Amino acid sequence: MGTEKYISEVKIIEAPHERVYDRLSNLENLEEFFDPKRIDELKKNYPDAPDIKLDNFRATADECSFTISPVGKVGVQIIEREPSKLIKLTGSQTIPFKFNCWIQLLPSGPTTSKVKITLHAELNPMIKMMVDKHLKDGVNRIAEAITKFPY
I need a surface site. Which of 23, 31, 44, 63 has the fewest CB within 10 A? Predict the structure, then answer.
């Protein structure tokens, strides 16, 4: 089992990094994105995204869980915050591999921010073979999606 590292491209967000951090550092703020209408909009904007169904979203400021069909229940929790700069997350026991995800934020101007996603995943060779391409693409999609959130 080895730890694989996936890094997104740096993306620009049209909002100050403090506001972006405040929004992303509380997982309860993600609930609106699990609305079925919002998910349908995303599918229209990203037609090549995998056809998955998300529901049963539950969140506190530090943890969230939801069901992804056909995977099952997934949970994520914030394990570290560095105000206005960094949010570190990890997966729950229901995810078939251990991971840490870093959301890094930097100011790029008075009203814009930069975001970069770094994912460290402990993958055995079989799982790596199945998910490597999806994780490489996934970190960029997550970073891109974060640029679209209303701040």
Answer: 44
3-state secondary structure 22-40: HHHCCHHHHHHHHCHHHHH
Give the tens place of pLDDT for each residue, 92-141. Answer: 766 767 889 999 999 999 999 999 999 998 988 888 888 888 889 889 98
**What would the two tokens of residue 91 be?**
């997966």
pLDDT at residue 39 is higher than 70: no
How many residues can be counted in the chain? 151
Cα dist. 48→37, 52, 53, 134, 135 in Å?
A: 18, 12, 15, 12, 15
- Distance from C-alpha of 69 to C-alpha of 90, rounded to nearest angstrom: 20
Q: Which of 85, 84, 96 is nearest to 18 (CA)?
A: 84
Look up the pTM and report it.
0.84
